[in-house]
Amino acid sequence: MAESVVTENGEGGDATRRDFIHIAAGAAAVGAAGMMAWPLINSMNPAADTLALASIEFDMTKVQEGQQIVIKWQGKPVFVRYRTPAEIQAARADDRAGLPDPQADADRVKEGHQQYLVLIGNCTHLGCIPTFGTGDFGGWFCPCHGSHYDTSGRIRKGPAPLNLVVPEYEFLSDTRIKIG
Question: Can you spell out the DSSP letters for 105-159?
């Protein structure tokens, strides 16, 4: 039979070993709980690829008159169009047309930069990507369900309920914009 050693305070050596085992088991349990909780907590952080694209800058000299460039921002296509004077005139003339989502052309562009139109390139019906120049109104056409947009990105015909979205953007200079 094992002998129990009595210490000065009257407790046996088994009690101190038992305390050590309880403390070690508790520490292991806390460590295991932390390891299980870490993936859950880490998944709540924003993805690194979206943080890098919270805002982007774009050089407008890459776009020639009558041309459209598509850039990617926050995983979405953004249309940057350098409108011709005829497109601007058509958009302004359509301000008085019966629009499903009424909005003046001047409200969709920045003052002094009316030739540049910046839009998120997703149809407001189901998120398809419309093509330019194939619609009935000289603007964009969504081939998936037949929505037609004018040269200002306003819905004119089809199932889309809203105009193409104008993202938050600002001109940093005459040739650079910051989206986001």
Answer: GGGTS-TT-TTEEEEE-S-TTT----EET-STTEEEEETTTTEEEETTS-EEESS
Separation of CA 132 from chain center = 22
pLDDT tens sequence across 122-137: 999 988 899 998 888 8
Q: What is the dihedral of CA 144, 147, 150, 156, to 10 degrees?
A: 180
Helix (H, G, I), strand (E, B) or coil at 166: coil
The position carrying tokens 């929505």 is 147
Tell me which DSSP letter residue 94 carries: G
Q: Which ranges of the chain have pLDDT less than 50?
A: 1
- pLDDT at res. 154: 92
Question: How far is 96 from 168, CA to CA, in rounded Å?
Answer: 25
pTM: 0.69
Catalytic residue annotation: 145
Q: Are 80 and 68 in contact (CB under 8 A)?
A: yes
